[in-house]
Design a protein that fits this description.
By secondary structure, this protein is of the alpha/beta class. It is built from 9 helices and 12 strands. It has helices at 7-19, 22-29, 33-47, 63-90, 109-120, 133-141, 204-217, 230-238, 285-295; strands at residues 52-54, 59-61, 95-101, 124-130, 147-150, 159-167, 169-174, 194-198, 222-227, 243-247, 258-262, 270-277. 27% of the residues are buried. This is LysR family transcriptional regulator.
Length: 301
Amino acid sequence: MSHQLELRHLKYFLAVADELHFRKAAEKLFISQPGLSRQIKQMEDDLGVVLFERHNRKVELTKAGAYLKAEISRNLKELNHILNHGKLLHHGIDGNLNLGYVGSAIQQLIPNLLLLFKKEHPTIVFDLKEMDNHRQIDGLLSKDIDVGFVRLERIPKNLKSLPVLKENFCLVLPKNHSIDPQNFKSMSQLKHEAFIMFDPSYSPSYYEKVMQIFDDSGFTPIVSHNTIHASSIYRLVENNLGISIVPKSLQMGYNMKVKFIELKNIKHQTILSAVWNKKNRNPSLAPFLKTINQNKGFNLQ
C-alpha cells in the first residue's frame, strides 16, 4: 500500500460505497464533490485497482470495491473500538461494555448482574439499550453491542449463548377478573377471552412458544391486540380490553391494576440467554461473562 494512502481515504471510500452517489457522499462528509472525486481517484491510483464503475446516472462497486468495503468496514470498527478503549484508559476507566436486552431482563436480572460485576470491576462502564431479539443479533454480528439478553431458540453460528434464567409464564388479568389463583384450573377456562400478545415480529420464537401453550390447551386464542411493550399490554389489560401471558420476570417494575397467575403446571417455560460474538475482542467481555456464569439462574432474580 502506498504511504500516501491515509485513514481519511478509507472513510471517504466507505461513504461513497454506502451512498453509491458522489454528491450525496460529499454532503455527508461536508466536503466538495470534486474534492471527494479526487480523493477516491488517488486511492484507486495508490492501490492500482478500480473501486467504482462510474456511469452517467449511477455508481457501482467493482468486485474489488465490494470486497474492500466489507473488510475495511470491519477493520475500521475494530480500530475504533481499540482507540476508544485507549481513551477510556487515559481517563481512568478500565473498559466499557455495550449491552442489548429485551424488556423483561431490565426488571431485576440486569441490575442485579451489574451490581455483582461492579463489586469486582468498578471502573468498567456500561451502555444499555432495549432492543428486540433480531436487532440484538444484528448488533452482535456487527459488534455494535458486546452482549445481548435474548429469548431465542437458535442463534447464528458466529455467536455463543449461555442460558441465564429459565422461568415460568404468567397470566395477566384485570384486578376485577373472576379468575384468580384459587379458582384457576386450566387455560381452557379462558378460551373465550380476548388475548393481548407480544407482536410476533418482536420475537417469532417467543410467540411460537406462547402459542404452544394454547395448542396444548386445545384452543386457538382470540388475539385482539399485538404490541411490543409490556407497559402497553398491562394498560390494555387493566382497561378490560383483554388478558395476556408474559414471562414471570415481567411481574416486577409496573404499578397497574392487573393481577398475575403463575402457570406452574404447564411444561412450557421461557429461557433468557446471554449471547455474544465469539470474535469479540473487547477485554471487558471475558470478566463479564465470568460473572454471568457464576451467578446464572434464580440468584439473579
